[in-house]
Amino acid sequence: MLDLIDVLFHQVSYAAISAAFFAAFVLYQVVQTLFFADLRHIPGPLLHRVTSFPHIWHVIRGDRIQWLDRLHNRYGDVVLLEPRFVVTCSGLGAKTIYSSNSLIKAPFYDTVGFGAGHKHLLQLKDVKSAGRIRKPLLKIMAKDNLNKLESLIHRHLDIFIKGIEGVPGQKVDMLLWLRLLAFDIISEASFGHDFGQLATGQFGTLTQTIFDSMRFGVLSSVIPGFRTICLLSPFPTLRRLHSSLQKLLMLGAKGIRTYDLSVTPDFVMAPHVLAPLFSDEESLIKEVSAFMIAGSDTSSTTLLYLFYEIALRPHLQQQLFDELSTATATGSDERITREDVEKLSLFNACIKETLRLHPPVPGVLPRLAPERGLTLGSPKSSLFVPSGVVVSSSVARTQTHADVFDEPYEFRPERWLSDVTEDMKQAWMPFSLGQRNCVGMSLAWSEIYIVAATVLRRYWLDVPPETTPESMSMVEGFFTLPSSGKCVLEIAPRKAQ
Ligand code: HEM
């Protein structure tokens, strides 16, 4: 009996000693992380030093834009977002991160691909390997080359116009129609044929697949193992999200393989034009499928907020109409071309201001601090970030920095008409900066110019009571969208006025 007590006593004391050691170790780690870690000089909530959970939570909720705003208001230009993730909202900080070729993309980009195998351009980590695809792609998508796409844009715009004019009461959900337009344009530009959704006025299988792919991309970028969770899940919604990427690839493959060269032989982004850039068909299919995501909601969101902001301001709308009326439509059938309107100053200022206040990619573009570390500077402070830490600009906040823009949250296109400071130029980054900026920028501008000019010359836009600042407040999914999921605007044909 005594022996038994002795053994138990020893076991208990061993267990107690082990527990005490473990508790001391945990305490040491917590104290070390909170007060002695190499990032302790970076301002931010204490919780961010030990967990990524707050960041994950706000990504899932879609309110990261507002959360980043609050963090910067409280902690300044440079903030600790996660234990190994630092964000800055200074233009100078953005320049430091994105204009240097030595910063590679963060592991985040591994999660936004199409699964195993080849990566698409957005995912390629370093400037050099991305450059091999980017350089020829930029030539293919150069402004002069894109003239050939203008008739394609107009063809879809005709269907769009017919569609919105048929909406009862001419109260149009612009979000729905602009998304349909952008999806049809990019699918025809990439696959050689659209999916006819614009003609039906409804989201179809393709759009649902793209929406699911974007949701899946967002969730798998923040929830570890999300792919596996979906794959093993009994819930049909999760399994549908997971299969969306494969579905998109299948549509991409079909588009490329059934591309009709006899109809559009010299098409800008035709498979035979793009194929030499890629080592095999799989890479080409992945790239073109990624265009479907990168090149759709980005353009439609810009056009949406442009129309909304203009519709809110009758005086500006009339000024813009007067300016657009000075442009002669030189395209076939007297259609507006990019060249007709791209130099109009107020028109350009309105688009720039829309992209400043409502950036389609509003959140973070994470990179890894290089081996020597880097200093994130702003006029107020500069903080050293050691090697391997993820660094990023908080884009929406950088573009509304109160030190750079007067009345930063006001839509004031005139700020771009005179006295544009270097700080303003530096802080305007809707397409990102440097060697990994948007490769589809020129295509996006063509689409925005042509659609916006055609619509604003043709219609007077009004905001009905149901469309409010709250319903239009920005949420961040893969890209920016209005929180209500719609944007009803009233359209009145100009001639009828
Ligand atoms: C208003 C419209 C657009 C905006 C605001 C926009 C914005 C951006 C931004 C901010 C990036 C950098 C992403 C990052 O570093 O994580 C990017 C990259 C990219 N964009 Fe766009 N984009 C637009 C339209 C388009 C279009 C129409 C395409 C058509 C194909 C496109 C294709 C791409 C691609 C392929 C990349 C990856 C480039 C690389 O990693 O080197 N984008 N875009």
Automatic annotation (TrEMBL):
PROSITE patterns: CYTOCHROME_P450 (PS00086)
Any GO MF annotation of the entry: monooxygenase activity
One Pfam assignment: p450
Sorted UniProt keywords: Heme, Iron, Membrane, Metal-binding, Monooxygenase, Oxidoreductase, Transmembrane, Transmembrane helix
InterPro entries: Cyt_P450, Cyt_P450_CS, Cyt_P450_E_grp-IV, Cyt_P450_sf, Cytochrome_P450_monoxygenase
Family designation: Belongs to the cytochrome P450 family.
Protein name as it appears in the record: Cytochrome P450
Species of origin: Acaromyces ingoldii
Lineage: Eukaryota, Fungi, Dikarya, Basidiomycota, Ustilaginomycotina
